[in-house]
Amino acid sequence: MLEGLAAWVLNNYLGQYLENLNTDQLSVGLLRGEVELENVPLRKDALRHLDIPLQVVSGFVGRVKLQIPVARLRSEPWVVVFEQLYGVVSPIRLNEYDKDAAAAACQARKINQLDGLEASWKAEQATKAGGHVAASSASWFSFGTSIATNIVENIQLRIHDVHLRYEDDQSSPGQVFACGISIRSLTVQSTDSNWLPTFVRDSNSSNAVSHKLLELVGLTLYWDTTSHLCSDITIPQLVEMLNKDINHQFVVQPVSATACLRRHLTPNPLKSRTQPRLACHLTMPSFPVHLTDQQYKQMLLANRLYDRLDKAKHYIEYRPRCSVKESPVEWWQYAMQCHIDEIHTKNENANWDVILERSADLVDYVDAYAKYLNSPNGLTSDEKDVVSRR
Predict the structure, then answer these.
(1) pTM of the full predicted structure?
(2) What's the DSSP call for residue 21?
(3) Boundaries of each Chorein N-terminal domain copy (predicted)?
(4) pLDDT at position 143, please?
């Protein structure tokens, strides 16, 4: 049972980022309650669900460990550990962009949002007396919700040795620049009101307050105005290159910080203007920032490229496969088609057939939503697809 639960958690929350994540990779110590993955590569499409014109070129996670206190779920926290997280990101190549896969990822993102809303609704219904959930089911959901709340509230996150790098050879033709962020360690854990780590019990009090302590060590940010690409090197070569103590052009020198976050858990609005729902006290030494003119110009070029790619990916089916010099006529036709397509779309939608079709879809959506509100089982996969497309 533990192995199945761990596999479900890892596949649902890490499956879209890690390559070939399956139960065969799991090493579960049932008595110790540990799930461990080693040397898992990052998916090339790990950023596709974010709908941004960036892609993962290379990367891997050296170790992912999930520590589960099997016999003490109500008294000890779950611990999630990431070690040696390395990744290289670059702008998408329009000639390699898959519009169908991007549309499928967008649809999956909407389905996940519906799943989250449905889970929140079920948890809310389970806490109500009566309603659509039977008393026996309500007690079971209440028990499960209490455990889940304790787990989420007390979960500890430990991240060690992170290096994420962005490299760009498209913004300025003939020139390659790169920027990166590295973190020596990052820990997040629950504390008491004195900011001492402790296990927080589930509290239903209207005055309950959650305390989180975040500790960041060795954060650096660099922007190298002259660099080289890492797209064709192997994982061992990538590790060696990112671990090299080379002369980076640092924008932010290594800094450390501690953040104390206080959050009021009451679902009711806070009526006091002097009492915020979220309060964060950040402790940080000097935070030197150094930025040269060339670095600033390259940042502007990268931002313009980002906007250009974000617009161009919507018209990828019209984009010529040749260069402008090889066929300027095709590129003129491409520019005109991008504008004509938007005009045709508006004209096609301005007729009674489309209006009737949209009306029928709206009726299906209302029926599905009504069933969602009146059924403790929620929506079927087909019904979720209908709702997510509206």
Answers:
(1) 0.73
(2) -
(3) 1-375
(4) 43
314 φ, ψ (degrees, to nearest 5): -80, -15
3-state SS assignment for residue 105: helix
Contact at 8 Å (CB) between 256 and 214?
no
Contact 40, 66 (CB under 8 A): no
Q: Token pair for residue 157?
A: 């996150």
Q: Is 52 exposed, middle or buried (0-12, 13-18, 19+ CB in 10 A)?
A: middle
Q: Token digits for 319?
A: 């984009």
d(CA 44, CA 11): 16
- Residue 126 has a CB neighbour count (10 Å cut-off) of 20
The beta strand positions in the chain, using DSSP E, are 27-29, 34-41, 54-67, 79-91, 156-168, 177-190, 209-224, 250-264, 278-283
How do residues 247-289 score in pLDDT, each as one tens digit?
Answer: 889 999 889 999 999 988 777 777 777 778 889 999 988 888 9
Domain boundaries, the chain: 1-304, 309-389
28 phi and psi angles, rounded to 5 deg: -105, 120
37 within 8 A of 10, measured Cβ to Cβ: yes
